[in-house]
Amino acid sequence: MLTTLDPVFAQMAQATSTHAGGVPELTAREKAFLYLTAGYTPLFDVDADPLTIGPLPFEKAMR
User: Fold this and answer.
1) DSSP string, 4-59
2) Each residue of 10-19: pLDDT tens digit?
3) How far apart are alpha carbons 19 and 32 in whole angstroms?
4) Secondary structure of 30-41 in HEC code, one letter for each residue
5) Element (DSSP H or E) covering residue 3
6) Which candidate, 6, 30, 53, 60, has a CA 20 to 30 Å from the CA of 44?
7) At what angle do helices 7-21 and 28-37 cross, to 10 degrees?
8) Which phi and psi (to 5°) does residue 41 adopt?
9) The organism sits in which domain of life (predicted)?
């Protein structure tokens, strides 16, 4: 859906998530912070320990 609304933004959003997820020096908490500050919505309990959740699911909504 994001690609249909704005293909350029969709590419940037994908590149951001791929890059942040691929930086081994960042902790799960730091990666979550990057997603949150980029406007992604967490699909998990943000108060839980990220290491107990596994992959941290996020979504990006377009208006």
Assistant:
1) HH-HHHHHHHHHHHHHHHT-TTS-HHHHHHHHHHTTPEESS-TTS-HHHH-S--EE
2) 777 777 767 7
3) 13
4) HHHHHHHHCCCE
5) helix 2-5
6) 6
7) 160
8) -100, 125
9) Bacteria
**What residue segments make up the domains of the chain, in order of their start?**
2-59
pTM: 0.59
Which residues fall within 8 angstroms of residue 36, CB to CB, at 6 or more apart? 42, 46
Is 28:56 a contact under the CB 8 Å cutoff? yes
Q: Can you tell me which residue has the tokens 């990057």?
A: 34
Tokens of 51: 């290491």
